[in-house]
């Protein structure tokens, strides 16, 4: 009899614990559905832009990843929009939508004004597009590159439209490893009594390759292939190089 009573008590405790657990899970589900929905996903990867005398290099890896998986190994993060190059990282759907919207707005500007848009006007236009979505922003970190009177320009943006001109910029999951290298070798930061000498396009390409090869060794979200665009006045050259695929 005592054994039966003990079994009955244990059964009741087990059932009550299950009921409590299921109710707690239901509350958690309610909270997540009510106020914790996240519409974004960081598809990550790495982009890089540098400018030197007479040319710009824009580069990206082609890995498109989720939280714990690789969705694609051949997904670009660079978009050619007229005479300009747009690089993006973050949520791929937002990045693609932003590139389409910017291309449309630039075409509308050129039709209405019957002239080519300048890189400075395009940069301000991109700022307005991002700022117009500030209450539900595009989750993308981008750079816009182009030439004006044979002078190269790079503009870097945050998701709500704040932007600045810069000489080098790296965004994405590999930025923490690559940006300090660019600050040292391109911007010459903390180089005392040093005259800044620009790299030629061959040396710039080698620097970009080495930077991405090093990042792909440490960053699981950077890899597969490296796309490099060398942009000169009226000319864009594209090259593809292999990276780590594991």
From TrEMBL:
Keyword Cytoplasm: yes
Entry annotated with the keyword Transferase: no
Sorted UniProt keywords: Cytoplasm, Proteasome
Protein name: Subunit beta of proteasome
Domain of life: Eukaryota
InterPro entries the record matches: Ntn_hydrolases_N, Proteasome_sua/b, Proteasome_suB-type
Transmembrane segments: none
């Amino acid at each position: 009899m005592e054994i039966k009573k003990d079994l009955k008590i244990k059964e009741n405790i087990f059932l009550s614990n299950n009921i409590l657990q299921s109710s707690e899970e239901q509350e958690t589900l309610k909270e997540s559905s009510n106020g914790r929905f996240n519409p974004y996903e960081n598809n990550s990867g790495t982009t890089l832009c540098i400018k030197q005398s007479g040319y710009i290099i824009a580069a990206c890896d082609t890995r498109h990843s989720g939280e714990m998986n690789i969705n694609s190994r051949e997904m670009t993060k660079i978009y050619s929009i007229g005479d300009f190059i747009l690089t993006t990282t973050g949520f791929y759907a937002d990045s693609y939508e932003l590139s389409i919207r910017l291309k449309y707005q630039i075409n509308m500007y050129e039709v209405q004004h019957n002239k080519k848009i300048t890189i400075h006007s395009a940069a301000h236009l991109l700022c307005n597009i991002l700022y117009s979505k500030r209450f539900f922003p595009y989750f993308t970190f981008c750079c816009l590159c182009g030439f004006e009177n044979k002078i190269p320009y790079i503009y870097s943006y945050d998701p709500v439209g704040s932007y600045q001109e810069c000489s080098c910029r790296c965004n994405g999951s590999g930025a923490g490893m690559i940006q300090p290298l660019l600050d040292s070798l391109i911007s010459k930061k903390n180089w005392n009594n040093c005259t800044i000498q620009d790299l030629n396009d061959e040396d710039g390409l080698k620097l970009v390759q080495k930077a991405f090869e090093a990042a792909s060794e440490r960053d699981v979200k950077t890899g597969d292939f490296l796309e490099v665009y060398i942009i000169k006045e009226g000319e864009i050259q594209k090259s593809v190089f292999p990276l780590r695929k594991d």
